[in-house]
Design brief:
The chain is of the alpha/beta class and about 725 residues long. Helices cover about 65% and strands about 10% of the residues. It has 29 helices and eleven strands.
Length: about 725
């Protein structure tokens, strides 16, 4: 969240937070923690299905709120973005920090991983600087026990000065102690937490500034922490504090005092960069001291099975082959598994179309109205849903299962060096993998990248990997021209292997254009980041399926449907409105034909890609509609009939290759471009995201066609 430029005063802040309380007495609890500590599992266990999600006002970071009832007491849990720090170097860190500062939570629960507590305490100490009303939740106690790790919770609580409880988020009974501690902190006197001590010169500057803050601020913000942030050079926090708490008349004197203290620190060699290093160093060393005697460990603490798996999955010799094999298997399961539900869904939706046709006939509606609404809007919408939904409903759960099991961070580890060589962030590997399911979902996933430059690199190049919407076209052409349409498991396996080869080409293009942008429009050096390899866990299959369908599949499908409906009307108009003796579609295809021939295509194919802008799934149906001079989308009974029709209209193996190349490299679909604009807030970057793959696709098709002609093909 955070205050936007247009939000001023208390009312603006309160409305921006949009905390939904079931009752006025409900307690608002902020749930913070590092990634991969089981925070979301704990949130889901407490709230069940009583939750909703959205974006923080002014940010693209997703928030989740949920209700939890315990007897007569109600809680509103706000699941903050997973972050390693609250220093506001990324949107996630700023959201977490600002909610604790300005969201008026009654208490904050910081979730830690019992198997790596020392590192997690860095976030705990930063949270304690913001607010004393904190409960430390040491989660994954079962995994710690399995690894021979013992955590003395009572001693840690004494050292921190706040309640510390141990939990196993998957076991709901273990969460009662957490709620009891939150009750005590929210309703009783605030604890007196440990204070992190900094070098003497910094402590002197803090002491000089703290008396200058308006007295009423101390009720909401810790003056000591606020002084630290101002000395660090965080001007945004001061603007937000004045907007939230008022006191503009005292601003000038405070800013002058801050500037004077910063100048004095600089004279002593405490420049901005060194100042931040000292802050981090003090927090890390404090966390180390806290853990002495608190955490004891028998053995290495790392499972021998996990070590063997990591040697297998992350080594240079076996990591990449296994990764490719898993990708091929996921695509094979998606290809084979989507056929049957897709056909069933298609039958249902087109049965509804027939009933709509009967209704229009019964009402004596004019043919043009029936054509526009039923054969245009509804038919295209039904086509997109029936072709798009089943593959996504299979791919996203499979992808999420790999994520839940702990394998996706290993993929990021394997691909970190190639992306570093392109001056990008290794996290881009994860967002690229998400793009295989849907490029729009991959774009949203780019939020995990802290650096704005590297986040833009990932967004602009995500469309070079083919999404599920392009699979039907690629698979159909591969099967017709390079595999054979006889069917069987061998044909589907070969299709999956060839599709994997095309995907590798997309990965190569992603790396190439990432490197190009890093050297031109988005110059810069790659930033470092903490890549955590979480322990392997047994996936929660039921929750994974529900989460992936509701959070990803239906989200993407909803956006696609919103654009597919009006596009269906446009396609019907193009195919049915005539000028002279030809339809608008024929005129446009004839106009594009000369340029398309340079690309090894024809005008109909290029026009189909343009009209397929709402969803890539309808490109082939549009081609069939144009070749057969029909007024609405249609499909043929078999791939053999389709291949015959294509050959009759001049297709060769060169045409098939160019169609696949252009399918891999052309403008993103409407859903993806809408998402890019929402994430970047810029039409300039959105236009560049469309232009890059399109220019590459046109250039590659022209070059390939020219080479074949030169070779006499």
């Amino acid at each position: 969240m955070g205050l936007t430029n247009s939000s001023t005063g208390m009312g603006a802040v309160d409305s921006a937070l949009v905390i939904r309380r079931e009752a006025p007495t409900d307690r608002v609890i902020a749930l913070a923690g590092n990634p991969n500590v089981g925070k979301s599992t704990l949130f889901n266990a407490l709230t069940g299905m009583n939750q909703h999600t959205g974006n923080w006002p002014g940010k693209t970071v997703t928030n989740a709120q949920g209700c939890c009832q315990r007897g007569e007491k109600g809680y509103v849990l706000v699941d903050l973005p997973g972050t390693y720090s609250l220093m506001a170097h990324s949107a996630e860190e700023e959201v977490a920090r600002n909610f604790i500062c300005f969201g008026d939570p009654d208490a904050a629960a910081v979730v830690c991983d019992a198997t790596c507590l020392e590192r997690n305490l860095n976030l705990v100490l930063q949270t304690l600087e913001l607010s004393p009303r904190v409960v430390v939740c040491v989660n994954l106690m079962d995994e710690a026990k399995r690894k021979g790790i013992h955590v003395d919770l009572k001693l840690l609580s004494e050292r921190l000065g706040v309640p510390v409880v141990g939990t196993v988020a998957r076991k709901k009974k273990s969460l009662d102690t957490l709620l009891d501690a939150l009750d005590r902190v929210a309703e009783g006197e605030a604890p007196t937490p440990l204070t992190v001590r900094y070098p003497q010169r910094i402590e002197k500057a803090i002491a000089a500034l703290t008396p200058l803050f308006p007295g009423r601020w101390a009720e909401k913000l810790n003056p000591r922490w606020l002084a630290l942030k101002l000395l660090e050079g965080d001007e945004a926090i001061l603007r937000e504090a004045f907007a939230y708490l008022g006191g503009e008349e005292e601003r000038g004197a405070l800013e002058e005092a801050v500037e004077a203290e910063r100048e004095e620190l600089a004279q002593w060699g405490f420049g901005e960069e060194r100042f931040r290093d000292l802050l981090v160093s003090a927090i890390v060393s404090t966390a180390e001291r806290l853990c002495r005697g608190v955490v004891t460990q028998a053995g290495s603490g790392y499972s021998p099975t996990d070590r063997r798996l990591d040697r297998l999955l992350t080594s240079k010799r076996t990591g990449y082959p296994i990764m490719l094999a898993l990708v091929a298997m996921v695509f094979w399961l998606t290809i084979v598994g989507a056929n049957y539900p897709s056909q069933l869904l298609s039958n249902i939706l087109f049965w509804v179309q027939d009933r709509l046709t009967e209704l229009f006939a019964l009402l004596h509606a004019p043919d043009w109205l029936h054509g526009a609404l039923v054969l245009g809007v509804y038919r295209v919408l039904a086509w997109v849903v029936s072709v798009m939904l089943p593959p996504m409903a299979i791919f996203f759960p499979l992808f999420t299962l790999l994520e839940d099991a702990g394998y996706l961070p290993r993929i990021a580890y394997n691909l970190d060096k190639p992306f570093k060589a392109c001056r990008a962030c290794g996290k881009q590997a994860l967002t690229m993998c998400m793009g295989f399911g849907c490029n729009a979902a991959g774009i949203v996933g780019c939020r995990i990248i802290d650096s704005p430059r590297e986040r833009l690199l990932a967004i602009l190049t995500n469309s070079f990997v083919p999404c599920n919407g392009r699979f039907p076209t690629l698979i159909a052409i591969l099967t017709m021209f390079f595999v054979g349409s006889a069917g069987g498991w061998k044909a589907s396996a070969l299709s999956a292997l060839l599709l994997t080869g095309i995907i590798l080409l997309g990965v190569g293009l992603t790396l190439a254009f990432t490197r190009l942008l890093s050297a031109t429009a988005l110059k810069g050096e790659p930033s470092s980041f903490t890549l955590e390899l979480p322990p392997y866990r047994k996936p929660q299959v039921g929750k994974v399926i529900v989460r992936s369908i509701f959070d990803r599949t239906l989200f993407v499908l909803g956006r696609a449907a919103a654009v597919a409906a009006p596009a269906g009307l446009l396609i019907w108009i193009m195919a049915n409105v005539t000028v002279g003796e030809a339809t608008l579609l024929s005129h446009c295809a004839a106009f594009l034909d000369p340029f398309a021939r340079w690309m090894g295509l024809d005008g109909v194919i290029l026009m189909a890609f343009i009209l397929g802008f709402p969803a890539n799934e309808i490109v082939v149906p549009i081609i069939l509609m144009a070749y057969l001079s029909q007024g609405s989308l249609l499909e043929l009974a078999s791939l053999t009939e389709m291949k015959t029709l294509f050959i009759e209209n001049g297709w060769t193996w060169v045409t098939a290759v160019n169609v696949m190349l252009f399918s891999l490299m052309h403008w993103p679909c409407s859903t993806t471009l809408i998402t890019i604009h929402k994430e970047t807030g810029s039409w300039k970057w959105t236009a560049l995201a469309a232009a890059l793959p399109t220019a590459a696709g046109v250039a590659v098709c022209i070059a390939f066609t020219a080479l074949v002609r030169m070779a006499g093909g």
